Amino acid sequence: DMEIRGVGNLLGAEQHGSVASVGYDMYCQLLEECVLELKHENKSYYGEVEIKLNIPAFIPESFIYNESEQLKLYRRLHRCHEIDELALFQAELEDRFGELPPEVDNLLLLVKIRILCQFLKIESLEIIKGHLKVNLKNYEDLELAQILRKFDGVISLSSQKILTLELEDVKMQKVEEFIQKFITRKLDLEKLKNNV
After folding, report:
1. pLDDT exceeds 70 at position 85
2. pLDDT > 90: what percent of the chain?
């Protein structure tokens, strides 16, 4: 019936442009953005941030066995674009399923990091051999120099604006600490500019 109306075989085995080729999250995002664009409601675009931290961040079967429930929760997490939304989601998870395992804590922290990176217009974060690589190409040279002036652990800032920091301990919390410090420094500089 849907194919007759021109929708195509969106969810079936003969789907045009397989979900598997782009990944489920990306597929959901593209579909959602297209629908919003068609409705002219896509007022707030959230740029994608590439995050490769090699830290276990997922919903284990031992915590939530039902695969359908897991997918629903992943979908809701993907749609979180505000820290308050994420806090409510976490409270609901704890209320419904009890104490969160470390992998879920990491997943929630990963989403928080993504939200903060979107706010900061950070292109990507990656941990390679104990070093955090941060793509800051959306920043002007002078602004970056001012923000990073008092940062500990800075190894280098390449001409492509890839910042390399040394991490004492490769944990999600250390990455969040860097992001929070970056935000604080950026906001302090904005206050100084506004007071001048």
Report:
1. yes
2. 37
